[in-house]
Design a protein that fits this description.
2 copies of one chain form a homodimer.
Chain A: H1 7-14, H2 18-25, H3 33-46, H4 52-59, E1 64-68, H5 79-94, E2 98-101, H6 109-119, E3 125-131, H7 137-144, E4 148-152, E5 162-164, H8 167-180, E6 186-190, H9 196-211, E7 221-223, H10 228-239, E8 249-252, H11 255-267, E9 277-279
Parallel strand pairs in A: 1-2, 1-3, 3-4, 4-5, 6-7, 6-8, 8-9
Chain B binds a DNA duplex (30 and 30 nucleotides) through helix 2 and helix 4.
DNA sequence: GTGGTTTAGGCGAACGTTCGCCTAAAATTA
DNA sequence: TAATTTTAGGCGAACGTTCGCCTAAACCAC
């Protein structure tokens, strides 16, 4: 393998000190245009790339994120997860990070695995996928005091810094919550069938309604596009239904739609929280997607 | 985050020099049992873990392997690949390595991506999956002169070590199985000639047919692209053949195509298993949910 | 000119390892 | 006991960065 090209090589070619090269690269100092050009051409001519090991050592960060994924439970390989994996890889790259996969042989292994990765400073943080209720990984990682994001929700009392809510589970939970409050006629403003995310969330609605054995009036499942306007228009139609068919709760796919719904509710003379409940939804760290009758963000 | 525990911390607690600790850890020198015990207990008590960045810098190796996988075309996720990914992660771990995922946005990006990873010494080598004929990644990596193995073979003159699913034997077995059941008119839905995997599997078909000394009607070897749709359309044409030329069994390259075939069979009024046999490949999870048990490999 | 402020860029130090050389003491032999 | 070999383990150096301090020259106002 070819010899490493280091800052010093660049420096001697450009006729400056190697520390100066480092600073030029990261724009940390003012240099005369002439020097900057000299350094930049030297970098280009030599094909210099900062050495990751050196950077990691110095900055005490690996620029690596550990990704924990469940090894495909037998018959149920999920394209969503594959998609998710691809997304995080792309996104991490945008910030100069990479994704590191690691094994997780047995349940008892969990502690050792994560401890090892963290103490060896091999990763800067973790992404967990398929987090379920009472996920054993969550307490372990929390004890290690390291940044973590999870895809899926764990309800075991740890205020995990940020949580990505799974659409299906999230909407289902929202609906369950409404059911628990006594709602029986629950409508949903869905997205066109082409939307995968929309389908996922709609499935959550069906899940929860079926679970509660509640009938679904075809009118309650609205499909459409847009944000505030869509919410406003669709909600008006729902509120125009005869009282017996009129929903007492409206579930939306995203907060901006919920805002439109709330506007419509008010302009029709109803009161949010008393006459009708509205829920929103967001992909960002939202633990609270339902506030009885009121979605505030 | 807690302060790093380094060799020096361990050393001062054990009353030796830090370099000695390093050597004890890797059994590179003889030490008196007494010293060894002192060092080992110090390590345990402090919870010392070698810092990966330091090791990487010193040893000039990242202990990371880059894994290039195709981001799941459309909705078709392959359980094989998922399995494969899991296996390499486990296996790498056994040798103290980890797997690094990296993005590959566009074809033109390929060179930059790999060059970056190699020059920055971020990875020690690569594993490529889904390698096919004329895979653009192969020449790029070979030029970088870095270790690489691939899953699937590319026949373009580079001696890249590889593993692969033996499609030839697999399909041949399937055909033999059908022959043993008394089938004589066996059709195959192949892929375009540009697909190496497809060529392999088709070769298995020829092998087995020749072995059984069965004639092959040119109409029985269909070439096409796609999944369910392809299976559906191609099967319909096969079923439209006059009875004497109509195949009694259809071999497909992948389960999703088989599903299309089965739909076509049903819609033409035939019964799977009685009038016609269908085989798949690669054990898609869906296969278990399809009504008439699909014979797959 | 004198004194004060800005600026470009040099320089030492540190991050945590591993490697190889070196030495003093212990073990062996004569 | 003296000469020789073996051994345990100390020590300096290097891997390639980044950070912060420092200095000499350049600039400015009087």
């Amino acid at each position: 393998m070819a010899k490493n090209i280091t800052l010093k090589d660049v420096a001697s070619r450009a006729g400056v000190s190697y520390q100066t090269v480092s600073k030029v690269i990261r724009n940390q100092i003012q240099v005369t245009p002439e020097v900057r050009v000299r350094v930049e051409t030297a970098i280009r001519e030599l094909g210099y790339r900062p050495n990751a090991a050196g950077q990691n050592l110095r900055t005490q960060s690996s620029h690596l994120i550990g990704y924990s994924w469940q090894p495909a439970p037998q018959n149920h390989s999920s394209p969503i997860l594959e998609q998710f994996q691809h997304s995080i890889v792309e996104c991490a790259e945008d910030y100069g990070y990479h994704i590191l996969l690691f094994p997780q042989r047995s349940a008892r292994d969990i502690h050792a695995t994560y401890e090892e990765l963290v103490h060896a400073r091999r990763v800067d943080g973790f992404i967990l996928s398929s987090v379920d209720y009472n996920d054993p990984r969550v307490p372990v990682i929390n004890r290690l005091n390291v940044p973590v994001v999870s895809f899926g929700r764990s309800d075991d009392g740890f205020a995990t810094p940020s949580v990505d809510v799974d659409g299906r589970v999230g909407i289902a939970d929202a609906v369950r919550h409404l059911v628990a409050q006594g709602h029986e006629r629950i409508a949903i403003l869905a997205w066109p069938e082409s939307s995968r995310v929309g389908a996922e969330r709609l499935a959550g609605y069906w899940d929860a309604m079926a679970e509660a054995e509640l009938p679904i009036d075809p009118k309650w499942v609205v499909r459409g596009k847009g944000e505030i306007d869509y919410g406003y228009d669709a909600a008006q139609k729902l509120l125009d239904l005869p009282e017996k068919r009129r929903p007492t709760a409206i579930v939306t796919m995203i907060d901006s739609i919920a805002i439109g719904v709330m506007q419509a509710v008010e302009s029709c003379g109803f009161e949010i929280g008393r006459d009708i409940a509205v829920t929103g939804f967001d992909d960002l760290p939202v633990a609270h997607y339902v506030k009885p009758g009121l979605t505030t963000l």
